Amino acid sequence: MNYDIIGDVHGCLDELKQLFKKLGYEWKNGVPEHPAGRIPVFVGDITDRGPESISCIQLVFQLVKEKGALYVPGNHCNKLYRFFLGNPVKEKHGLETTAEEYRSLSSEKQKEVKEQFKHLYEESPLHIILEDVQAVVAHAGIREKDIGHKSKSIETFVLYGDITGEKLPDGRPVRRDWAQHYHGDRWIVYGHTPVREPRFVNKTVNIDTGCVFGGDLTAFRLPEEEIVSVPSSMPRVEEKFRY
């Protein structure tokens, strides 16, 4: 199969539509389809911070349920899932934008969106192994020894990266640069940490190019190993980019 792995969307629906168009998808019955049957793969964090998180949930849900698209959850997805379960979570770091959108919906629409997202989250693996193109998709990355395994520590790594437990002055966690120590033969395609341009280290690529912070929305195509990006319409927030 041929795949288009898409970085953190964060509610940027217009840019996602532009990216699908640039990738050669055609819209049919409200969803994008590729004439050659390419499969979209989402690296997580489809909501929060951007202007149209609810529409992004509905589109990704429909693509996964009806068109065979793939999705792994990110840390923002995990927090939204806990919000929808009714657990006490702080509405900050972007969740407040999704929560505000959600509360503006009718009660009937709220129920529909909640059930769609819960189903999407519960039915999706924390990382996806794409055997036919020798690649693994995980939101914040994954260590080679953890591929194909499950544990609480692996879940934390996949959702949040290689965190040290320390905090930066702005509240973000301190993360080790795990990709420097990856020496596997399979591609690890991930996002989570905004970078100014796709960051290739060993056989890993970070494709979160900070669309919601005024960067780009990026896809990595396999087996072609090709980058395709569209620019963001959001204001540039330079301090959000790590590299």
How would you portray this structure in words?
With 243 residues, this protein is an alpha/beta fold. It contains 6 helices and 14 strands. It has helices at residues 13-22, 53-67, 75-84, 95-103, 107-122, 152-160; strands spanning 3-6, 26-28, 31-33, 39-42, 70-71, 127-130, 135-138, 163-167, 173-175, 187-190, 199-201, 204-206, 216-222, 226-231. Strands 5-4-1-13-14 form a 5-stranded mixed β-sheet, covered by helices on one side. Strands 6-7-10-12-11 form a 5-stranded mixed β-sheet, with no helix packed on it. The longest helix has 16 residues, at 107-122. It starts with a strand and ends in a 12-residue tail after the last strand. 41% of the residues are buried. The model has no long low-confidence stretch (mean pLDDT 95).
Can you give me a brief rundown of this structure?
Helices cover 28% and strands 23% of the residues. With 243 residues, it is an alpha/beta fold.
Distance between the ends: 32 Å
Q: Estimate the global geometry from the Cα principal axes.
A: globular
Summarize model confidence as the mean pLDDT. Answer: 95
In percent terms, what proportion of residues is strand?
15-25%
The largest sheet, given as strand count, sense and whether it forms a barrel, is: 5 strands, mixed
Helical content stands at 25-40%
**H/I helix tally:** 6
Q: How much is the radius of gyration in Å? A: 17 Å
Largest beta sheet: what is the strand line-up? 5-4-1-13-14
Structural class, by secondary structure, is: alpha/beta
List segments where confidence is low: pLDDT < 50 over at least 5 consecutive residues. none
